[in-house]
């Protein structure tokens, strides 16, 4: 167990769990339907089976907001709802239409970490080791919270929970049915998880945003829709808000915005017993007033309850767009939310950040060398961490995706054009990033990219496998250990620089990784990364790996100036490497991208961007302070002076 955790997940929260954004990326707005619960009334944790009795908690009531998509839309907007409820403690749950226990696998009854990444998007890791869908990463980044694996509800989890209860005899021999047993379990799970603190202050959330995955009419989602049809009456109207998101297509041939998909999806939703309080219309261009009034008339809502979300310049503009259409005022009145003056302060910071993003002039180019570049969602958190860091230093990010196989000699023979284009990208980059991954495919190209960055003193960051490959490359080319390899690629390697962790991998690759938040202790005060983290003696970051650097070779590597500046609390597992006499050659065994926030960028990624723009030394000499131009304001001074990075954090 991580020293930072102290208690097991089951001790930290109830035994039963529960489980937009821009338009061109995973955090973009997509179709959603939302429900909201609210603080000072009687919505509490269910007793008994979960469906019968509700009692009032000692703390203020928690409002719930549930989301479901209409035609052509799937949920993804809920993160923005949380951001436009400033000054309130927000938690979130996401319901997936998947028959599996884990949260990140698109198959039946799979362990979430076992699905090939080339077949799906990123596996996002939570503090408690939960492997979930990248959408929960969007929640964490937008709301600046830390969720648990039980915030992700799947069909498999619910059915397994009900089956276990039946086997224990909890139902006393009754026939177990979808209604009421499955629907009761959904409601019980949501209410238990809605009370779990997620913002680090150990206070119960005041708002719970619930995203119902899929679209209206999906067979898999019917039990969940029925569960929330019942739930709205138990929660009472003043505690429950339903938000429906639907696409308003605009055919290029006519340019006319069509409302029929929205009308049909709202009719289907109302037929299932849920009437939307807000209808959010997604479109490529601003929706015309006549179209808005038509939707209002046929969908039985007031015009001000029709919210228009068109394509915007960045993710950060979405909460501002929602606020400009009166969302805060609506929720304040609809749910009796006591939103104070802190709302304007926080939204002002968010608005300044969005404005600043659009005014960026300078560009920093980073080459991401990976093996899953054809599906860029595989690196969603990496991209966001780089974007957060670039914005913090007042630069626009130019991320160049390079398939590592294209850098290999075999590609030069088979496809010379692709080979030279890949190397041309790499040579133009201001910095190089090799992220995590698994398997031998493409590792030769990654090793060549690492060697190029090291020998030419180009800023480099290796994450997880990227760090392991950096050590292998260094052993081969600087220690002349030509047979240096990883047991992941060559089980009988003559020089095993990277080895498996027997306690986590007893011959079984399924569900055996070292997961979740772990503490890393700095061995020396003379470390770039330690300074970037605020000169602290230790840090806590999220991990996802089953291989480690061989401790028996550490002394040889350090004799050649490759320092292992960070270790685990036992001093056995190498966590951070730094190369002397290099602008920035850093490798980390953990995944810092999972903890990056828009106003609180990840230090390793920030260091890469600072080094790539030539500002790292100035930043370190000034005590890790940012210039006035690097704050979320209108200032444009390029000198590094007062404000610290901590000022970027939402207060």
TrEMBL record:
Its EC number(s): 6.3.4.2
GO molecular function: ATP binding; CTP synthase activity; identical protein binding
Glutamine amidotransferase domain span: 375-604
Bias (Basic residues): 85-96
Pathway: Pyrimidine metabolism; CTP biosynthesis via de novo pathway; CTP from UDP: step 2/2
All copies of domain CTP synthase N-terminal, residue ranges: 118-337
Catalytic activity from the UniProt record: UTP + L-glutamine + ATP + H2O = CTP + L-glutamate + ADP + phosphate + 2 H(+)
Chain segments carrying region Disordered: 1-96, 629-651
GO cellular component term, pick one: cytoophidium
Pfam families in the record: CTP_synth_N, GATase
InterPro entries recorded: Class_I_gatase-like, CTP_synthase, CTP_synthase_N, GATASE, GATase1_CTP_Synthase, P-loop_NTPase
Domain of life: Eukaryota
Top enzyme class: ligase
Single GO BP term: 'de novo' CTP biosynthetic process
Alphabetized UniProt keyword annotations: ATP-binding, Glutamine amidotransferase, Ligase, Nucleotide-binding, Pyrimidine biosynthesis
Physiological role: Catalyzes the ATP-dependent amination of UTP to CTP with either L-glutamine or ammonia as the source of nitrogen. Constitutes the rate-limiting enzyme in the synthesis of cytosine nucleotides.
Family statement: Belongs to the CTP synthase family.
Name of the protein this chain belongs to: CTP synthase
Species, as recorded: Bos indicus x Bos taurus
